[in-house]
Amino acid sequence: MSLSHINADGNPAMVDVGAKAVTRRTARARSVVELGDAIMQHLVGSDIQTKKGPVFQTAIIAGTMAAKRTDELIPLCHSLGLDNCQLTITTEGSAAIVECLVSTEGKTGVEMEALVGASVAALTIYDMCKAMSHHITIRETLLVEKTGGKRDFKRD
């Protein structure tokens, strides 16, 4: 298997997607943030209120902004106009579950946009809650599923 971002000379290169067909592309990524009981006791309704503001609402905005700027953060990503970016944050026990669903009509996938959106939302939760505890762990960030392109993917 060859790496898609390495050219024939062994140098980094952006993938040429010029000949690819425009198709509907979607991706969903998840980050799990273990907050612990000390932070979760501040959960009121569906959000954690802090002096900095509502944690999950702020994280949703940050994740959306980051997904739209993925090409500025990941060196060889293409610039994409996203048709949709939806972040949701739910709680399960003492963890916050961040999901980022991204879609576009394009020649290349949106996996990185979904992963960046979920990651930055998770980091925002960390930042806004760290005054309450430093025992926060971002357990995982992973691609859950993608459609469009050569092949679809869905994690079991």
TrEMBL record:
Enzyme Commission code: 4.6.1.17
Top-level division of the source organism's lineage: Bacteria
PANTHER family listed in its UniProt record: MOLYBDENUM COFACTOR BIOSYNTHESIS PROTEIN 1 (PTHR22960:SF0), MOLYBDOPTERIN COFACTOR SYNTHESIS PROTEIN A (PTHR22960)
EC class: lyase
InterPro entries the record matches: MoaC (IPR023045), MoaC_sf (IPR036522), MoCo_biosynth_MoaA/MoaC (IPR050105), Mopterin_CF_biosynth-C_dom (IPR002820)
UniProt cross-references to SUPFAM superfamilies, sorted A to Z: Molybdenum cofactor biosynthesis protein C, MoaC
GO biological process, one term: Mo-molybdopterin cofactor biosynthetic process
Pathway: Cofactor biosynthesis; molybdopterin biosynthesis
Protein name: Cyclic pyranopterin monophosphate synthase MoaC
UniProt feature coiled coil, ranges: none
Domain Molybdopterin cofactor biosynthesis C (MoaC): 14-149
Gene: moaC
Taxonomic source organism: Spirosoma sordidisoli
Keywords for the protein's UniProt record, in alphabetical order: Lyase, Molybdenum cofactor biosynthesis
Keyword check for Coiled coil: no
Described function: Catalyzes the conversion of (8S)-3',8-cyclo-7,8-dihydroguanosine 5'-triphosphate to cyclic pyranopterin monophosphate (cPMP).
One Gene Ontology term of the molecular function aspect: GTP 3',8'-cyclase activity
